Structure prediction request, 248 residues.
Amino acid sequence: MKKIKWLLTVPALLAPAASMAKEAAGEAAAVAGAVPDITEGWWHLWNEMMWDIGLIGGLFAIVIIYLLVKYRRKNSDEEGKGVKLSQLAAAGWIFIPAFLFIADDIFLAAKNFEQWQKMRTPPAESYEVAVEGYMWGFDITYPEGITATNELRVPEGKAIKVNLTSRDVVHAFFVPDYKVKWDMVPGSQTHLWFNAKGIGEHVLTCAEYCGTMHSGMYGKVIVMPEAEFRKWVEENKPKKAESTGGEA
Ligand SMILES: [Cu+2]
Prediction:
């Protein structure tokens, strides 16, 4: 019996310890870059949840199988007999495991909320672009006045804030590589931001069913070395003479 009691306390003790070890690893990752990496944050949270669920679920499965085998009925007229516990022991068996599991849940919820806050708060020095969804594409406007469709060019390593809206129906701006997705709502301004990592092309797609060509509503996020991006901006931005010519 003693052996069983010991076994039952193991999962409850392990869960918070495992969480703490993983938290320390996450803090080290956060100091590495100046622009926070929300993509890594989601991976970190995912791994943490999987470890928690795996450890607790695995240990419970082992204990359950052990008890099922040990206390199985050996002949058809065998009757079980309950173990007598004092009131204090009974309360302990209820409240201590419940407290540990709830504490672990609250810890995970707090980490989740922290990641959420990061995801919803673009860094102050973000490069801002405006994107308007329509059936079926993405119209992009840069702060320098450049406009483009379905190709969002961004400088590498910068925080990019994307202001979102829609011209017709509800769309969603989704970049799977960065684990960011947000609705584009007609008549409303929403936003998301990401850390432009990885020079090259990243899929941009609509993630809200928006009509017959929804599955064809594709674009690209093109991450360029910063100098190359600046050069592209200089070459493509509207010339002053053209933009003010009408008013003169
Ligand atoms: Cu759409």
Summary: Residues 87-120 form the longest helix (34 residues). The chain has two domains: 2-71+85-120, 127-239. Residues 1-13, 28-33 have pLDDT under 50 and may be disordered. The first strand starts at residue 127 and ends at 134.
